[in-house]
Design goal:
Elements (H helix, E strand, L loop, with lengths): L5 H17 L14 H27 L1
């Protein structure tokens, strides 16, 4: 059933939250801490790719 007003929508949301909490589900879990390892891994991979491309270009000029 679609809500006709904001108040009805909020009541439906409150009922869903109560039901979830009764089942033991936390609707708003705490945020997970940032893990910088993914950023470092991606950055390292990009550096390796760029060095590889640059070395291929430079090797073409040196090898003739």
């Amino acid at each position: 059933m679609a809500a006709q007003s904001v108040e009805e929508e909020l009541q439906e949301l409150a009922a869903l939250v109560r039901e979830a909490e009764a089942l033991g589900i936390d609707p708003w879990p705490p945020e997970k801490p940032d893990r910088p390892w993914a950023r470092w891994a991606l950055g390292s991979f990009m550096i390796v790719l760029m060095l590889s491309a640059v070395s291929k270009v430079l090797f073409r000029f040196v090898s003739f």
